[in-house]
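name: query_chain
kind: protein
chains: 1
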Amino acid sequence: MASLTRTEGHHYEVALFGEFFAKDLHAILNRITLHSESAHHMHAREIVFEPFDAQHQRDTGNDPVLLRARKELLEPDPKWVLYSYLKPESVRVHPEATVRPWATCQVTGDALCFASALGYVKRSQIYKRGYVFRRGPLVIQMFQQEHADPKTQKPIPARADNLWEVEVKTATPVRNTPETPISKVIEAVLEVQLLMKGLLDLRRQDV
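structure:
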């Protein structure tokens, strides 16, 4: 059996994204570490699910809502978290950063069977290995992707020269209220963008 708790109301994630070559790892790692409050290693497993009728939805002009399951493998007692993003807000409304509605569920039990019971089927799976940093309301993830072995489902180590990816985003879903305006969080991610200027290009993306 699985149970969940869900955030209520309209919550959002604010994010910027970037990527860089392995030769720049130490310089970027040092700069982010210098401007962060904490840092530790990360190794996460992520599975993306889509509705069983996803192709029909696409054929009729609709974008299916994807469901994602994530587990931090380095935690003492790792738990699955299910979350889903909706379509990002228009670039005309938020040109500086990706702002997208975000629903998240803490799952107790078998999250993968739970997703199946909701009418979802597995579409893809990856592992992410690297570092995670905290900076105020933000989490900065720096990682290389690892693919899963088709037979064992275990991660296949990334090649040393594989691209590194960076995600600068809100650590938890935020509500756009007078007390916690989205504009303040956008300012926070843009501060990181400015700190990394000349070394790492952080940008908005809509996927």
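note: Residues 182-195 form the longest helix (14 residues).
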